[in-house]
Design goal:
This protein is mainly α. Helices cover 77% and strands 0% of the residues. The chain is globular, with a radius of gyration of 19 Å.
């Protein structure tokens, strides 16, 4: 189909993705967020392992640092998108790639790939750092449980970064997205959880964090919990894509 003013010519995806990756790689604040994700998660997991009690879930204890490190993950996702709304950067990006949905897909992919890579490395390092303090409890963990939890943790951190990216695109503000997400994951879901019963299991953070547990109750398991978080993330990304397509740059 021939291009028209309302239907710009298609662009190969790889060059667009490469340009978005270059933006992320060259911004120190984004690299700093990924380093913070690794450092904070591993440090808190090591501390949790050293101070754990015998009756706690050893797998969740080993990966509990990720529940704090996720703040860096959502900061990474929100900041990667919000930078486009400063100084006319989005206008320049869309001048180069007029197909807005095409551009936003590349942006989301450029966020997801490093977030997943760092998330997996972080989960593995956190598990190894905590095992020393867990003592005999660590010996009870099976290889399958540990692999599942490491992969699940990496996926969870990636989904939360993308959730923040979608929200930042919808609100056109990284500060706005973080103002919603950080209080939510640190306070609101726990407060609601005390009063809402099993309904809290379907909130994006609580559902995904089931993958970090060795034992779990409720309607969701590790993979179904991640699927719920993925649905929340997809909704946020679709809302963000709608905002990019419908609103002025």
């Amino acid at each position: 189909m021939a291009p028209t003013p309302d239907r710009p010519a298609p662009f190969p995806f790889a060059p667009v993705l490469h340009s978005e990756w270059l933006k992320i790689r060259t911004l120190r604040s984004l690299l700093g967020a990924l380093l913070a994700l690794f450092g904070v998660s591993v440090a808190f997991s090591a501390l949790a392992g050293a101070t754990s009690e015998a009756d706690t879930d050893p797998l969740f204890t080993a990966l509990s640092g990720a529940t704090v490190g996720q703040i860096a993950a959502v900061t990474f996702g929100a900041t990667a998108v919000s930078g486009e709304f400063h100084g006319g950067a989005l206008r320049l990006s869309l001048a180069a790639v007029p197909r807005r949905g095409h551009w936003f897909a590349a942006k989301a992919t450029a966020i997801a790939v490093p977030a997943l890579a760092v998330g997996l490395v972080t989960a593995l390092a956190a598990l190894l750092a905590a095992r020393a303090g867990l003592g005999e409890a660590a010996g009870a963990l099976t290889a399958g449980e540990q692999v599942r939890a490491v992969v699940g943790c990496g996926l969870y951190l990636t989904l939360m970064a993308l959730f923040a990216a979608g929200l930042a695109a919808l609100l056109r503000s990284g500060v706005g997205a973080l103002s919603v997400l950080i209080p939510f994951v640190l306070v609101v879901s726990f407060v609601i959880g005390d009063a809402a019963g099993t309904a809290v299991d379907f909130l994006p953070d609580r559902a995904g964090q089931i993958a970090l547990h060795g034992t779990y109750d409720g309607p969701l398991g590790p993979w179904s919990g991640l699927a719920v978080t993925a649905l929340w993330t997809a909704a946020a990304l679709l809302a963000g894509a709608w905002s990019i397509r419908r609103r002025d740059a």
